[in-house]
Task: inverse folding
C-alpha cells in the first residue's frame, strides 16, 4: 500500500507547484477584494457644502467605528463653534492632521446644509451635540485639505485593490486549469 501511495505522490509531483500557486493567488485575490471593500469613499465632492465658522473650542471626542467587523473606540479631534452650537465637527483621515486653534476662522466642507446645521430639534431632544464629519478644510483662503483630492485618492486606491484582486483571481484560475490538465494527463496515463 505504501509503495502504491509513493508512486502516486511521485506521479502527481508536477501538479504540486501550480496547485500551490492557485491557492496562494486565490488568497491574494481575497485579500485585495477585502482591502478594496475597506477603503472608505467620502461623499461625492459635488454634493458637499462649504460653511464658514469661528473655532471656539478644540477637544478630543470618543468615537466608535467598525474596523474589520468589530466596533473599535478611539479618540478623534473635535471642534465646537458658537456659529453652530448644536453640532460637533469631527475630523478623520486627511482633515485630522490639520492644526486648529481657538478663535480662528475656517471653512469646512461638510455633507449637511446650513438649515440642517442650525436645526436644534434632535440635539435638544437627546441632550447631545450632533457629530458632523468634515471632508475639506480652508484657512485664510488657502485650501489645506481638498475634499475632491481626498475622494479621488481613495477612489484610485479602491480601484487599484479591485484590479489587483481580479488579476490574482484570473492567474489563480489559470494555475488551477494547469493543475487540472496535468492531473488528468497523469491519471489517464496511470490508469492504462
Result:
Amino acid at each position: 500500500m505504501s509503495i502504491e501511495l509513493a508512486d502516486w505522490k511521485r506521479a502527481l509531483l508536477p501538479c504540486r507547484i501550480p496547485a500551490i500557486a492557485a491557492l496562494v493567488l486565490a488568497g491574494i485575490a481575497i485579500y485585495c477584494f477585502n482591502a478594496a471593500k475597506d477603503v472608505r469613499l467620502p461623499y461625492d465632492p459635488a454634493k458637499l457644502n462649504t460653511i464658514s465658522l469661528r473655532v471656539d473650542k478644540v477637544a478630543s471626542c470618543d468615537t466608535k467605528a467598525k474596523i474589520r467587523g468589530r466596533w473599535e473606540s478611539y479618540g478623534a479631534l473635535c471642534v465646537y463653534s458658537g456659529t453652530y452650537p448644536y453640532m460637533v465637527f469631527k475630523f478623520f483621515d486627511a482633515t485630522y492632521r490639520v492644526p486648529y486653534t481657538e478663535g480662528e476662522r475656517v471653512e469646512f466642507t461638510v455633507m449637511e446644509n446650513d438649515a440642517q446645521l442650525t436645526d436644534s430639534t434632535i440635539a435638544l431632544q437627546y441632550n447631545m451635540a450632533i457629530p458632523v464629519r468634515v471632508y475639506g478644510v480652508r484657512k485664510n483662503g488657502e485650501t489645506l485639505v481638498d475634499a475632491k483630492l481626498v475622494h479621488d485618492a481613495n477612489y484610485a486606491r479602491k480601484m487599484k485593490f479591485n484590479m489587483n484582486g481580479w488579476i490574482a483571481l484570473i492567474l489563480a484560475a489559470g494555475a488551477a486549469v494547469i493543475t487540472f490538465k496535468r492531473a488528468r494527463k497523469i491519471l489517464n496515463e496511470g490508469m492504462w
The mean pLDDT is 85. The chain has five helices and seven strands.
